[in-house]
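Sequence in, structure out. First:
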Amino acid sequence: MDEVSRDTAAREYVERMREEPGYIHPGWGQSEYTNWIDEQLAWKETCYIGDWSFISDLEVSGPEAIDLLADLSVNSFENFAVGRGKHIVQCNEDGKVLAEGVVRRTSEEAFILHSTPSYWTEFNLQRGDYDATCRELDLFKFQVQGPTSLSVLEAVADGSLRDIEFIHFGPIDIEGHEVTAFRMGMAGELGFELQGPQEHADEIWDAIVEAGGEFGLRRLGGRTATINHLEACFPPRGRVFIPAIVDPEMDEYQQWLLEDMDRVSRDILSYPIEGSFEADDISAWFRSPVELGWENRIAFDHDFVGREALEAEVENPRRTMVTLVWDDADVVDVYASLFEEGEPYKFMEMPNKQQWKMESDDVLVDEEPVGVSTFRGYSYYFREMLSLCTIEVEHREPGTEVTVVWGEPGGPQKEIAATVAPAPYKTDNRFGNLNSV
């Protein structure tokens, strides 16, 4: 693709995504089961069960399966033992994230990929020369997270949970069915993801919900499901960054997704954009692992796509990830404008944007742009409006004062004072010996 046509295609994508209405993510079931405040408190005070079964699953196996994964991923696969998992990140040659999710090693020659790395890995396996095969799986994935999650699962499961270390997995039995208990915590709290064949999903869900009543378990609705990702700094695609698969130069992969993958949901290639941040090229919304706070996933012990670009960036990083805490009075003023004469400021949905869209807003210091705020949301636990921000490294220190420009180009805009804070914002409670719980 020549430079002119690439620039035109990139600009047209931005313009088209500015017009996209967005959509309500169907994956988490109901919007609310009790109410979003009650459900949001659950992962701090009791626990929740949430349904991530909409995420894709792919088993890759064979003598060279590990070589395929290593070639595509920034992660090291040295000392990656059977029974372990990890957050897997895959990039383009520029070091920008194409796909990210979770990989589990189930045997010496077999791995299960969850989320978008399943697509990118299968595409490269079909076009590469690896002694490996793949097959799509249809698994339920129920996350039970929060301080009482272990008590809930011990009440319903046969099999040991306390000897499963963080980011490891093992078998348990629920209602006579073998279930994989994967110890992970997307809420930044103690918890497990339970996985198994879809034909047992309803039975497993109902058993957990019934057992959880004694321990304050809540079902997690879609309205507040991603606030835990915001507090714990797990940046999701389409909210914090746009994966580089939408680059015009990825046309072959895009066509493969559309033509060959009937399981692809509409969000894989469509990322609606709004907010005060503007750019002509879609790559302005791409992010590297360094910019997303995932530098510790990168291992230069092997060759992989994007290694050269990431080596240079790690040596001299330009931007990093922080949390922004928005000024209460300025936020209240946005809502107050609804009760005043004239055109109000852009509405702030509570607790966050319900349509799946990327709210990306300019972040300024002394009226100069220094970053992009994304993934705005209200934490009832902290009683604060928060966002994640990719910011220039010289402004990353906690306590730094910045300004977020709230509102669409051409409409009323409000400058909101904000303060830089660490990412994750909440204490990380995922680790520790379960025998001491």
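Second:
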Amino acid sequence: MIYRAALSLLFLTTSAAAASLAVSPQERDLLGITVEPVMSLAEAGTGSLSMRVTFSPDGEWAIKTPLPGILSRTFVQEGDRVQAGDPLVIVRSPDFVDLQRDFLKSRAEARLAEAAWKRDQKLHEAGSIAERRWQETRYQHELATAEYAGFKGQLLLAGYGEKDLDKLSGDSVISPDLTLRAPANAIVLERPAMLGDQLDGSELLVRLGEPDKLVLEAILSKSAAAHLREGARIRLADGDSQAVIVFISSVLDPVSQTVRVRAIPDSSDGLSAGQLTSWTVLSDQPVLLVPSAAVVKLEGEDVVYLEVPGGFEPRRVEVRSTTGGAWVVLDGLGPQDRIAVTGTVVLKGMSMGMGGGDG
């Protein structure tokens, strides 16, 4: 009876134009309204992350056999560091001989077709040859140019560089040995092929990883991942290295009920691929949590009741639910705010009594 009287009094004394709800300490006790500060990530007990160091998607290379042949020489072994352009292996290939021969032949034919085209172009401008002959000459020139470009592209795909092409074009010396080189400064992670191996094409010869292109990956439970957000900064537990969380998967593994989280370190110093590291979410950018019971729907929006002098103020928030009983606050609250965590149904009723509605 006393509870109903107090509730009626609150509705009668709350102005429709008021920005906050006036609730005295005695009325809080009577209506079962309790207040707690917004929790930070550290207070929620999920401040530590175990993350494995791995190569970024654009920092790992698979050097494969471009043409059938035999592995005739290797220059590296697992663990070696190489610089961009360093030789890795040599493949001896009859197909490579044919490709170089075809390249030189098409280059000569393209030059001959270009000379004929330039000659007939002048004759055509002077009116000395028929239009049909001029069109045929131009067609032959374009055809020869396209074929030459095609063989050049095949050599580039096979591992030739522009300097190799210039050398071949200059001295016309054909070699059966194709040297495959490192595309970047890297570490040799694997070299599965052996000298004398018969290669049919597409076999893995060397796998490389760029030590300056590392990422951090973790497999977390849905509830633990929900306490994180993209853009949050983390620090190595036993060092000064920092990283930023850039990806939290929205796909839940149906078997393990986990999600993948990825972060990018500011620097690769002190980190090695395969290393298991422990990180802490920085306190200057905490992830804020509120109990799920503190959030109510008001006019179709998520609202909490923020403690203000003399009562409470409805505050619109953007939150993300978790399976751990707490919701992550994405927007609308600060780490020093205090909110109602019980009695929110009563406060919602007061808000609706001011002219609001439940959408």
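Remark: The helical segments are 2-13, 25-31, 94-126, 131-157, 162-171, 222-226, 344-353.
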